[in-house]
Task: structure prediction
Amino acid sequence: MSGHSKWSTIKHKKGAADAKRGKIFTRIIKEMTVAARMGGADPVGNPRLRAAVAEAKAANMPKDNVDRAIKRGAGELEGVTYEEVVYEGYGPGGAALLVEAMTDNGNRTTPEIRRIFEKHGGNFGAPGSVRFQFERKGLIAIEKKAVSEDKLMDVALEAGAEDLQTGGDEIFEVYTRPEAFELVRQALEKNNIPSVEARLGQIPSNYVKLDEAKSRQMMKLLEALDDHDDVQNVWSNFEVPEALLEAED
Result:
């Protein structure tokens, strides 16, 4: 079970924005609120909400925050109503980008995202222009110090995982089909294998390598998108050069 490690590309060293616990919590709270509004407040019958709650647990979010977000989505508490928007485009050098956002004012958010693309050498695309290059998968990250590779492989594959990869020196990456995500996450939990992140995401079908100048420009674009308050996730097929990852460490 080898191949290109996707973890650094998925995370792409988001920097100060996602390093802040508040930014992470805000993203998860929005996801739980929307999931509860669309599919109900019971995680048992709402797979999307179950996945969001699992991510909240992996991020050590207080239970009160989780409960309030679900109640707000279910209409039991007053709160802002968010609309889901997916933006597509290309970065410097032709790397594809999917930007998932939740906004209470699309007329504000859309031009702001467009300006970020343009400012950093990207091209804002039409709906469907890059989505075909990505596939939705479950992503679970486990610290290597928490479990042996053999045990993790046995537990994850038995529960329905598709792939197990090594994400650098510290992380194991478990990938699942969306419908198997919760089963795998529960199996890991039952076997006392803690995750540092558990979520559904977009995995590219191929990766693009850029020269150093374009890579640095692309990193700035990714960070600017991440910094936007309405952006939930940014997915790209940009293969981050190891030299840049080491420099950011």
Summary: Residues 133-204 form a domain with the Alpha-Beta Plaits fold (CATH 3.30.70.980). Confidence is low (pLDDT under 50) at residues 1-5, 12-18. The first helix runs from residue 7 to 11.
